[in-house]
């Protein structure tokens, strides 16, 4: 890529800019990574993003670009971790929500229902990093503080407002389910989950997906619910229902048996187990 207009200045600036601020070099590496990604040079993109993140941890742009490169390299577990990390920094990044959904489907198909057990650990983003990325910094002095152009309020404030809005959206979804409008309810639950990942919202959306015969999505939502609450009876039952429809009888039976450890006399579960044993 020697002929590329960006290659020469960056190759000079990045390695040898000892006096430049770490933040500035991080931005340069992230920008070069974007060029590598565009050219399909995914491994070079990963290397530059990792370099940018070593200099300034939890930058949204290098995380998203590295996730996209991992996705192109079919390293779905690593892509999932980066997309999830972005959502810890800023839960409103739609590209990261979309990426998580794509990776969940890919990993579910590749590794089955226990795909989470094979994931590398997801780093915990410190609160200090959760407020600093409201506007991409160009390495200006004082870039560690959120720019005045994009005030985000106190972290607690926005979280409380988001949680309240999420609850309202979930209740609107519940009302739509009562009316039998599962498709519209899915939209409400999806909006709610973008603001607050709650176990009950996942199991409610899974119920809608079952009604809409979208069984893979139902499995995915129940798996998310069980990550939040490993013994959740509704999540185990609904995932077992979805797995039965997908003809994955072995996994379905395993879920029902887990459920029955918590509720041995659950009649719906016992009935489903009888059906599965006949299947």
Automatic annotation (TrEMBL):
InterPro entries: CiliaryAsmbly_MitoImport, TPR-like_helical_dom_sf, TPR_rpt
GO terms classed as biological process: protein targeting to mitochondrion
TPR repeats: 199-232
Listed GO MF terms: heat shock protein binding
Region (Disordered) residue spans: 134-165
Swiss-Prot/TrEMBL keywords: Cytoplasm, Repeat, TPR repeat
Primary location class: cytoplasm
Low complexity bias locations: 136-151
Origin superkingdom: Eukaryota
Subcellular location: Cytoplasm
GO CC terms of this entry: cytosol; mitochondrion
Name of the protein: TOM34 protein
Source species: Himantopus himantopus (Black-winged stilt)
